[in-house]
Every structure is written in C-alpha cells, then in structure tokens.
Design goal:
The chain is α/β, with parallel strands linked by helices and 332 residues long. The protein is built from 13 helices and 10 strands.
Length: 332
C-alpha cells in the first residue's frame, strides 16, 4: 500500500489544515492529525475511512490499511458487522497499528447477546485507550424495534458502562432514542438535507457512511455503487417490511424506488435494474468515477455531520487498486 501514499504537497487541490490542542478532536498521540472540514455551524467534521468484507481483502490486508489511512490524513477507521471476521478484533488491531480512533457501524442486535457484545466492546475500549465506538442497530427486528434496542443498550451497560455507543437511526423515534440512551446516531444513505432533518429531530452526534467507488472503468464503478443502492432501497425484511423504503421516501425518492420494485416484481435481472436506476439516485447517494472532483463532492456530502466516513466500494473484490485509488482520491 505504500506506493499509493501521498504527501500533502503532492495532493492536487488539498489545502493546509490547522488544528490546535484545544479542539475536541485533537489527538496529541498522532504524528499527523487529519484535516477537518467545517460544518455549517462552524464546528468540525471528522473524516473517517470505512471498509468491509465486500472489498474481498483478507483480514491482514484490512489491518494493514490502518497505516496508510493515517499517512493520508484519515482520523478514524470504521467497519460494519461482518460474518467473515470479528469487527471488534479488527478495531483493536487497527488501533495497535496506527493509533487511530475506531468504530463499528453497526452490529445488529440479533447478532449476539448484549452482555457478550458488551464485554468484547469493553475490552476494545480499554485496549484502545477509550477511542473505540460501538454501533448497534435493530437489524431485522421489526416487532417493537425501539424497545428492543433500548433493552439491548441496557444489557450492554450492565457490563460496559463507559464504551461510547451510537445507534443505527433513520426515523424520528430511533433518532430520539440515540440522543437519550446513547452518544450518537449512525445514519446511512443520507443527503445533506436529510442530515439536517435528522439533527432537527435529535441533538446528538451524527455519523454517516458515504459510499464511493474510484476506478478507471467508469461503468464498473457505476455498477458497484448501483448494486449497493439497490441492496438497501429494495431491502425486504423477513417479516415482509421494507427496511429502507420510508427513508428513501423522506428524501423524495419514493417514486423511483416504487418503479424499481415493480421491475423486480416482474422478474427483471440485477443488470436490468441497474440500467433502470435513475442517474439522480447514483449522483445523490454516492460517488462513482476516476477521482475527479472527489474532495469537493465529499465536502458537500459531509455537511452537517460530526463524522463523515469514506465508505469504500470496489468493482473487483480482491483487487487492491480501487481501494488505494479511493483512499487517495478522498484523503482529507
């Protein structure tokens, strides 16, 4: 990965960023602190890097991204709940490798007992000097999800009182829960306007994944992004409930999702659904390109957030080149 590193002087369009020890996000242990973007209200936006098993990399390769992320100016590292590796163990390894803050966004509450997850999180909290954040979400729970998440938080707090928690939240009730019972909300697939709406509903820390795919093959990059949008927009829970439908409706994409659902219902293939996806969905919810204008685009998408996570996608799982290109293009 060292071949893709870039010093600030080599990064076209990058500007020097000054940060003082009085900033809440200042980490005196870092040799290089991350550049921070200004939020609309003149506070700061932390820029993190997000990866998961869909990149097709080994656990060792994911671990080794930490040093490169730090050299490029990223301030934190994030992953989701994975069936291919232990995300909490990976966060501990990342911190040992580069000293960056780490987080999981999110672990579904059905993945394991609250006390077991809480003990693992407490271990990570202690081994990372208190810089680990645990995110939890309702996942496939559709019967009284608010009560279920609230109870899960209570279970975690029985064994891990000090671990910072964020809650996967899209609607008003879960946002309120995140503000009252946790330290923040883990958003997903949000426009800047939706972030602003979320903040009006709950005055709490806002963390969001922003999907990006950087590759010389524009069609392949577009396909990778479209696949991810489809996976969420057309998600149907085991109960039959549409997981993200209301979320996309709130942002004005209800008709677009309905058309895609209708095509899927009559047996259209994934390729046909991707071709039918409106361009405005792609350009609104993610970046697919060669890296041109990446930082400017991300700056707008990060508006209103406390932590904006560059969530890397790849058109070719196992190929390190799109990963390196994405890290470089969106480096703070």
């Amino acid at each position: 990965m060292s071949s893709c590193a870039a010093s600030p002087s080599r990064r076209s369009g990058s500007q020097p960023c000054r940060i003082s020890p009085c900033d809440a996000s200042f980490d005196p242990r870092s040799e290089q602190t991350a550049c921070l973007l200004s939020r609309r209200d003149n506070t700061r936006v932390e820029i993190g890097l997000g990866v998961d098993q869909r990149l097709g990399l080994s656990v060792a390769q994911l671990r080794d991204l930490a040093g490169e992320a730090r050299s490029l100016g990223y301030q934190s590292l994030w992953t989701n709940s994975s069936l291919d590796y232990d995300p909490i163990a990976l966060c501990i390894a990342w911190h040992a490798e580069a000293g960056l803050r780490t987080g999981i966004s999110v672990i579904p509450i059905g993945r394991g007992p609250a006390e077991v997850v809480g003990l693992a999180a407490r271990t990570a909290h202690e081994l990372t000097s208190g810089t680990f954040t645990l995110g939890i979400g309702a996942g496939s729970v559709t019967e009284r999800p608010i009560a279920a998440v609230r109870g899960y938080i209570a279970g975690i707090r029985q064994v891990a009182r000090d671990v910072p928690l964020i809650v996967g939240a899209l609607g008003p009730q879960m946002l309120h829960l995140a503000a009252k019972h946790a330290q923040g909300a883990a958003l997903n697939w949000c426009t800047p306007a939706q972030v602003e709406w979320s903040r009006s509903e709950a005055k709490t820390k806002m963390v969001d994944y922003i999907r990006v795919c950087v590759d010389e093959d524009l069609a392949a990059a577009r396909r990778a992004l479209a696949q991810q949008i489809l996976a969420y927009a057309l998600l149907v829970r085991p109960s039959g409930a549409g997981g993200y439908r209301k979320h996309f409706e709130r942002m004005g994409f209800g008709d677009d999702v309905a058309k895609l659902e209708a095509l899927k219902a009559v047996g259209k293939s994934e390729d046909e659904l991707i071709r039918a996806m409106p361009e405005r969905m792609l350009t609104t919810f993610g970046y697919a390109g060669r890296g041109d204008g990446a930082r400017e685009w991300f700056r707008e998408m990060a508006r209103g957030l406390d932590v904006a996570v560059v969530r890397l996608l790849t058109p070719r799982p196992g190929d390190m080149r799109p990963v390196a290109a994405g890290m470089e293009a969106f480096a703070p």
